[in-house]
Amino acid sequence: MSGTSEYIFIGVGDVHDNVDMLARIPELKDAYGIIVSGDLTNGGGPAQAGNVLNAVRSANPYVFAQLGNMDKPEVNGFLEKQGVNIHAQARPLLKDGDAPAGTRPGILGVGMSNYTPFGTPSEVSDAQLGEWLDAAYDKADGFDPLLLVVHNPPVNTKTDVAGGGHVGSQTVRAFLDRTQPPVCLTGHIHESMAEDFVGKTKVINPGALRGGGYVLITVSGNGIEAELKQVR
Fold it and tell me: Which pTM does this prediction carry?
């Protein structure tokens, strides 16, 4: 794809061991890569995450991924060894030489979630999510535009509603208020398939992959844009 001025990524999340919907995403054949925002498994470890990663790579070999709260903590090390991990990291979004002129697109990820009532495998304090975000952002200097991928949605948006209330992260919300990346891909709350704005940041939760939701992310000389879509 070198020499083109526009690149498409497919963003998904909450896979939970079920990748059946991937093959039905119509834009997948033209995609530069796939981004998994978290929850590759349903309480599994590296073996289960490996099955999902293999299926995703079969659809498209250029992958970014991070663990969610339903993945065991050791999935983080597995993804790191596989060279796809973005949790608590900032990395170039495109391969060397592919960035549109005058840009250096980057991707910043933070996985896991804040504490839930369910005691899932990878939960931390909301303060810890904020510390990871800040530390990764410090490493993101020079990336412009920047795509944020955070498993836990920001509080008080359409993307964090469960049981009639807002259950998202205060620190993710504060980070978005302060840094204003163009797009935040999130997940975690399956019933909140939605898009919303925090200031100028478009926040999109595609819900669980088995429901057919995904995000079409476009990277070009005009920046990063994103749209919530659903396989019908």
Answer: 0.96
